[in-house]
Specification:
Blueprint: E1 6-9, H1 14-25, E2 30-34, E3 53-57, H2 63-70, E4 75-78, H3 85-90, H4 92-113, E5 117-123, H5 146-165, E6 169-174, E7 177-178, H6 191-200, E8 206-208, E9 214-215, E10 218-219, H7 220-232, E11 241-245, E12 251-252, H8 253-264, E13 277-279, H9 294-300, H10 308-322
Parallel strand pairs: 1-2, 1-4, 2-3, 4-5, 5-6, 6-11, 7-10, 8-13
Antiparallel strand pairs: 9-12
The structure holds nicotinamide-adenine-dinucleotide.
Nicotinamide-adenine-dinucleotide binds near residues 12, 34, 36 and 123.
């Protein structure tokens, strides 16, 4: 039986390209949409030219682009956005135009085309200044950055589109995702690819603050599983819901550096002697993050298979082969 067509926005980015590769290889017809703002066409090398993959180089801020991209599509996995808290502090206007304006365009396009479900990338940043741990979906604080506002607004719009137009959506609140193809370069690189590259090159990593901040690091294959389960879920509780997608373990930044040093110790001589440097705390950073993944387990059957350590092993192999 022919499989349903999927549109993946942000398909040339870290998470989008991994989703696109996964679903193309499973035999789904996939359309990838990306304007290459932060993504790279080479992320799609494994599937470019495959008969069931089509790439559209265009911008979600253009509603006509969104209308065309959803044509004939059953499911949308919406990943396109400008990520990074510091980027949003430096340029809140563009972040808002893409993350809110572009998101609204996608909702309108999905509604008008009768898309069955839009699964979208929400964010743990929505927990903002709430000190409660572990984070449960219903208890959020005030946003600490323009980026966090945009991601929260996405959830509010999705809820209203379900209630007013019946558009079915699921928001996946990702917690610090990492893995193959995550960009280690540029001013807004995430901590795992940045530190991995620095340590591989025998450069001391610089921490923002004293390293006691903590995160719930989530390997990319757990995120792919969550997207597939969310997309295919048919139970009532999954309609119009928001779910934490994480591994469910808390690691400090100092703990992360120790783990990376340990895993790289065979290939980087005397890595234990590399000093760690300390810089100022960044504006907008949430001090601690740890997810309850109970709701995702119950609603879509989410069952993450990769711990931080297992995911780091896989990621390091990839960076060693590709950097
Ligand atoms: P990424 O930057 O690698 O991917 C985002 C993609 O969106 C890029 O390829 C970029 O070119 C594309 N894009 C940006 N603006 C666009 C526009 N106007 N039109 C079309 N495409 C556009 O980032 P990622 O880490 O893969 O993040 C994917 C999604 O997950 C984002 O929505 C992000 O906010 C969300 N998220 C990521 C994390 C994480 O830890 N990586 C955590 C929480 C939420």
């Amino acid at each position: 039986m022919a499989k349903d067509k999927i549109l993946i926005t942000g398909a040339a980015g870290f998470i989008g390209s991994n989703l696109a590769e996964y679903f193309v290889k499973k035999g789904y017809p996939v359309v990838g949409l990306d304007n290459l703002a932060t993504g790279h066409l080479h992320n799609l090398n494994p599937i470019l030219g495959t008969h069931n993959f089509e790439f559209i180089n265009a911008d979600i801020r253009d509603i006509e682009v969104c209308h065309k991209a959803v044509s004939g599509v059953t499911y949308v996995l919406h990943q396109a956005a400008l990520g990074s808290v510091p980027r949003s502090i430096n340029d809140p206007i563009t972040t808002n135009e893409v993350n809110v304006g572009g998101f609204l365009n996608m909702l309108v396009a999905c509604k008008e085309a009768g898309v069955k479900k839009m699964v979208y990338a929400a964010s743990s940043s929505t927990y903002g200044d709430s000190k409660a741990l572990p984070k449960v979906e219903e208890v959020i604080g005030k946003p600490l950055s323009p980026y966090a506002i945009t991601k929260y607004v996405n959830e509010l719009y999705a809820d209203v589109f379900y209630k007013t137009y019946g558009l079915n959506t699921i928001g996946l609140r990702y917690f610090n995702v990492f893995g193959r193809r995550q960009d280690p370069n540029g001013a807004y690189a995430a901590v795992i690819p940045l530190f991995t590259k620095q340590l591989m090159n025998k450069q001391p990593p610089t921490l923002n603050g004293d390293g006691t901040f903590s995160r719930d690091f989530t390997y990319i294959d757990n995120v792919i599983q969550a997207n597939e389960l969310a997309m295919l879920s048919t139970n009532d509780e999954s309609n119009n819901c928001v779910l934490n997608i994480a591994f469910g373990e808390q690691t400090t930044i100092l703990g992360l550096v120790d783990l990376l040093k340990d895993l790289l110790s065979d290939s980087v001589k005397n890595i234990e002697n590399l000093k760690t440097l300390y810089g100022p705390i960044r504006d907008g950073d949430v001090p601690h993050s740890l997810a309850s993944i109970q709701k995702a387990k119950e609603v879509i059957g989410y069952d993450p298979q990769y711990s931080l350590k297992q995911g780091l092993r896989e990621s390091i192999k990839w960076y060693q082969d590709n950097l």
